[in-house]
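Weekly structure sync - notes
Attendees: PM, LS, DV (DV joined late)
Agenda: review two folding runs queued last week.

Item 1: First target. Sequence and C-alpha cells pasted below for the record.
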Amino acid sequence: MAIPDLAFDGLKVKDFGRINILVGKNGCGKSSLLRGIQRHTQDKHTKYITPERGGAVKYNASYEQQLHENRAHHLISERSRNQKIDFRGQSAALFNELAVNFMQALHYDDALRLDLTYKFETRILDKINALLDNITIELSDAAKRFLIRNKRTQAEIDPANISSGESELFSLAVEIFSFAYEKSIGADKIVFFDEPDVHLHPDLQYRFAKLINTISLEHHIEFVIATHSTVIISALSDETNAKIGFMHEGKEEIKFREITNALRDVVPVFSPHPLSNQFNSSPILIVEGDDDAIAWTQATKSSQGHIRVSPCVAGTIGKMSEYEQLADELALSLYDIPKGYSIRDRDSGNGRNTNLTVINSLVLNCYSLENLLLSDDVLAASGTNWPAMKQQIEDWLNCHQQHLYANSIRQFCSDGYLRQTHKIKDYRNILLGMINPNRPFYMLIGQAIGGLRRTDLARIDQDGSLPKFLGEPIMKQMLFPSVSIAPADGPSGQARG
C-alpha cells in the first residue's frame, strides 16, 4: 500500500487499505487528520478534496489560466481549505484539462489507439452520466467545453439551474477523473476525500461511492475518506480491501480494519442521516436470532410508540460480543449522546459485555425468549391462565405418552413446572398449540411486550408476570429508562441509556 503506518500529533494511524473509511462526528478532527496524513505522504502524488464545495459547474477561462500558471499553489494550498466558494467552477475548468490529458495518453500509447472502445465518452463521460438522473453531459467544441442537457427533452440547461446534488456529483467525478489522468507516471496516487456525502441524497451517495471504487481499481488510486454517512460505508463495505477506522474523542490510535459481515449487518440499522436524532429515538437492539428480532419488531408496532428499537440479528450467541463492539464504536463515532442495547437469553450465562460505552448489554430473566410464552400476560391475552395451562399439559401427556418430547415435558412437570427457568425451546410448538395455534409464538410475545406500560414496573417481583420474565434491567433500562436503578455489576446510579 502507498500509505505506511504513521505517528504524528500524539496519534497513531495504521493498517491502511486501498479504500480507507474514516468515521467520526463533526468537530472530532477528521479534516485535520486527513491533512496530517497528506503532510506525511508528501513523497506520493496526493489530492485533498474539501468538504465545503460551493459554486456552479460553469466554465470560466480565468480558472483554467490559474491552473496552468500556478498549479502547485492553486491545487494544494487554496483548494485544500475547508471552505472553497467556487470549487465547482474550478472543477468545470478541470474538465477541459481532463479531456486534453486523456487524448495525450491515447496519442502516446500504441496499444490504446488500437482499442476502438477506448474513448473519452465510454471511459469517462458514460460513467459520469450514469450518476445523473435528470441531466446528461456532452462534449462541446465551444469555449465552454461541455454542454448540459435535460435527459428527457434534450434541451440545453444553464449550469446555474441544475440541482445542487447533480452539480456536486459532476464536480466530484471530474475532480477524481482529472487526478487519475494527471501526468504522474510511476507515482503513488492518494485522494483525501473530506465528507463526499455533503449535498448528496443517500441514493446519490451510494452511486458515487461505487464510482470511487471503480476509479480506485482502474487507476490504482488509494482513498482516505472522512465521512459520517452510513450509506457510503454500506456502499463500500462489499469492495475488496476497503477498510474502516473509527475516530472519537480520546482515541490515541486509529487502526483501519477489514469490513466484516458483522459490520455489514450493523451499519444498515443506523440512520442514513446519522447526524439527525433518528438513531437515538430508535436505537439499535442486538439480538441472537431471527425469532428475537421479529418479537421485538412486533413489540415496537404494538406499543403505540413507547417502545422504539431497531433489532439487528447477530446470528449466534458467539457473535454477540463482536456485534456489540462494532455497534459501540460506530455509535461513538457518529452521535453526541448515543445509546443502544443488546439482549441475551439467560441460558447463555450472564454474558454481559462490561467493556462497552454505548451498548447496554442486558440478559433476559428467563431461560430464553420462548419462556415468555408461558408468562401470565401472554396466556391472558390468549384467553387462558397458568392453572388451566398446567392441566392442558397433563392432558396432553396422557394422550401422547410415546411422543418424541413426552419425556422432556414429563421432566418439566416433575421439576415443578418451572416455566421461567426450564428449557422449553424444543417443545415450544406443542405448548403453542395449547395456547394459540393460530399465531406464531414470537408474535404473541411481541404483542404482550408492546402492551406493557410504566405501571407494570410494579409487577417486576410478581411470579409469573411478563415483567419478571423480562427482568428488572430490561424493564428499567430499556423499556422505561427514566427509572434509576443499581446496575448488576457496579454501584448504584443512573442507568445507562
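Item 2: Second target, run right after the first with the same settings.
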Amino acid sequence: MEETYYLKVKKQYANDVIEDLKMLDAIEVLQEPEIPEWQKEEVLRRLKALEENPELEISWEDAMKLIHEDTITRL
C-alpha cells in the first residue's frame, strides 16, 4: 500500500519520528516537484499584462462563474 502525504512538521519530536521511520525504510521523503520554466514565464507574462491593462483583472468569483458557464456550454 503506497500513499503520498504532504506534511508540515510542527514539533521536533515529530521530526525525530520521521527520521526514525526513514532509517527503518518505512517511508521515503520526496522532494517537491520543481515548477517548470514555461509555467514561471507564463505567470510573469500574465502579471505584466495585468500591470499594463488593470481593467482586465476579474475577481476569483467571476473567474469561477466563467469557468462554470464554459463547462456547462461544452456539455
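Discussion on item 2: The chain has one domain: 1-75.
Action: LS to circulate a short write-up before next sync.
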